[in-house]
Amino acid sequence: MNKYYFNFLARFHFYALEGLAFIFLFTIFYLLLSSPRVALATESPTSTAVQIERPLRILIEPGHEPNFGGTAFRKLIERDLTVALGAELQQLLAEDPHFQVMMTRDTRDWNPIFSDYFRKNWNAIIAWKNSARKNFNNLIAKGKIRKPVSKVSHNKAPSKVATRLYGMNRWANENNFDVTLNIHFDDENGHRRNVPGRFSGFTIYQPSPQYNNSERSRKLARALLAKLEEVSQPSNLAGHKGGIIDEPMLIAIGENNTSNATSLVIEYGFIYEKKFTDPKLRSKTLEDLARATYQALEDYRTQLQ
């Protein structure tokens, strides 16, 4: 054996070891990628590729405040009806280990978590809201996004009410809630007192495409539309047809990009509809609407897996 033979053996061993190392590293990398518990992050804020391995966190926000706001018909008060529906939904979600659920208030007061949060963070909420608006307007000014335009008119929330709505968004962001649902009932402007209006049906408001939570919210909106159509029908009010509306001006779904969560505002029907005003029909109606919403959340959750 000469020196050339030994050189050949040395080089052969070197390349063989290098090849084995490459195969080993490639195998590890492949196993990591194929593992069901590994999720790849993306730069897109609207991506739903991230797999949820924990229970889905749901924040139920009954529309308006414990002692203020909302419409009424005869003795039926919207802000109380939203709590009744929210409580039905909360019970269904609480019985399912795939969800963690919290409700922001009842008919008498705010959930203590939120009343304390508002009190301790009031000025910080206002500063955060103003900063979000400035940042969003800068994106519009630079031409990075188009200015969103609302197609439906809404009542402007009083200043303190608006601050609490922004505060709920901020709290949900800080506590990593996955979904926020803001519950309402509609009313027709100008109909005679104690006389039902002409319109009926539900409307789902989803964030406009300019918002970071739009894509995810649209998935839930479609799932909710399908389930609600099994127990009700989309609103027949002009401009509401189809059941789902893009909306940039509602705080509860993330005006000025203030919600990281999948967020919807749902008008579950018109408050003067008989199925709400008749106590004999109301309980079953709220149960059906809550169950349809729960089933939509379950469908949405399975999409994330």
Can you tell me about this structure?
The protein is of the alpha/beta class and 305 residues long. 46% of the residues lie in helices and 14% in strands. The chain is built from 7 helices and 8 strands, in the order H-E-E-E-H-E-H-H-E-E-H-E-E-H-H. Strands 4-1-5-8-6-7 form a 6-stranded mixed β-sheet, with helices on one face. Strands 2-3 form a two-stranded antiparallel sheet. The protein is globular and about 50 Å long.
Q: Can you list the strand order of the major beta sheet? A: 4-1-5-8-6-7
Which residues sit in consecutive blocks of at least 5 with pLDDT less than 50? 1-17, 20-50
The beta-strand count equals 8
* Mean of pLDDT: 86
Measured between the Cα atoms of the first and last residue, the distance is 62 Å
What is the overall number of helices? Answer: 7
Strand percentage lies at 5-15%
Radius of gyration: 26 Å
Helix content: 40-55%
Order of helices and strands: HEEEHEHHEEHEEHH
Task: Outline the biggest β-sheet.
Answer: 6 strands, mixed
Structural class: alpha/beta
Principal-axis shape:
globular
